[in-house]
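Dear Dr. K.,

Following up on our conversation at the group meeting, I've run the structure prediction for SAP domain-containing protein from Phaeocystis antarctica. I'm pasting the input sequence below exactly as I used it, so you can double-check it against your construct before we proceed with anything downstream. Let me know if the numbering doesn't match what you have in your notebook.
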Amino acid sequence: SFNPEVVAATYVPKRCGISPVRSLLSLEQMVARREEIKKQQREEMSDDGDEDDDGEALQQVLSVLLASSVAKLRGICTSNGLDGQGPKSTLIERLIDHIATGMRAQRGGP
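The predicted structure tokens came back this morning:
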């Protein structure tokens, strides 16, 4: 409210509700900023989703590889240009690494 007895006022930053440096935005500008924030959030969420999908796919591949015989794993390794020697766990590890590298390459990741 307006007090006619007050002749002058002092601005104290962070204690006053009005800032001399604050600019007012039009409704269109506020809507545009909010849409930009929503777009960035959707992009971040979709990026995270790709990694989750890759993890699920690798889990399915792992279950198939665990059920496969050593001879079959050796054949798969050899056909993909990988070393086909070693125990079953080593063969599975090589194949999972090979598949994960291919998935990252398709996504354009590191």
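Two things stood out to me. The chain has three helices and no strands. The chain has a mean pLDDT of 76.

Best regards,
J.T.
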